[in-house]
Design goal:
Helix content is 75%, strand content 0%. The two termini are 17 Å apart.
Length: 137
């Protein structure tokens, strides 16, 4: 799955991070399809994990700083994303077919971005209009 401008939530820094995560997921999906050896998948997963850790930390800090009312539920959704990352890595490490899990992770992440992230973006743009001043593609 590739990044689509319709996924943008309108907060430039977050959209850039989401786009990077999509790029990393696509690289893993392509690697799985090509049946690359584990060391390549491991490298790609490490890149995705670093991108995700950074993104989730930034997003949670932003939610805390802005006192977003749904921040606890959002943290719980992030915990689920982290669990899915671990499942994906375990499945790929043990040479199990990872296509379905990669696809599931992508779709779950898309749903999270389109629903949960859009909800907090709407709140933040109402409370802090400067955050939405520069729309992202």
């Amino acid at each position: 799955m590739k990044w689509d401008g319709s996924f943008a939530i309108g907060i430039e820094a977050i959209d850039a991070q989401h786009k990077k995560i999509f790029e990393r997921l696509l690289a893993i999906e392509n690697s799985v399809a090509k049946r690359d050896p584990w060391h390549i998948l491991h490298f790609l997963l490490a890149q995705l994990a670093e991108s995700m850790k950074f993104h989730l930390a930034v997003e949670e800090a932003l939610l805390e700083i802005t006192r977003y009312p749904g921040r606890q539920e959002h943290r719980e959704a992030h915990a689920r994303i982290t669990e899915l990352m671990a499942e994906l890595e375990d499945k790929l490490e043990h040479n199990a077919p990872g296509e379905n899990l990669v696809g599931f992770f992508e779709h779950w992440f898309v749903r999270h971005v389109l629903a949960d992230d859009r909800e907090y973006a709407r709140y933040m743009k109402e409370q802090f209009p400067a955050l939405g001043a520069r729309e992202s593609a």
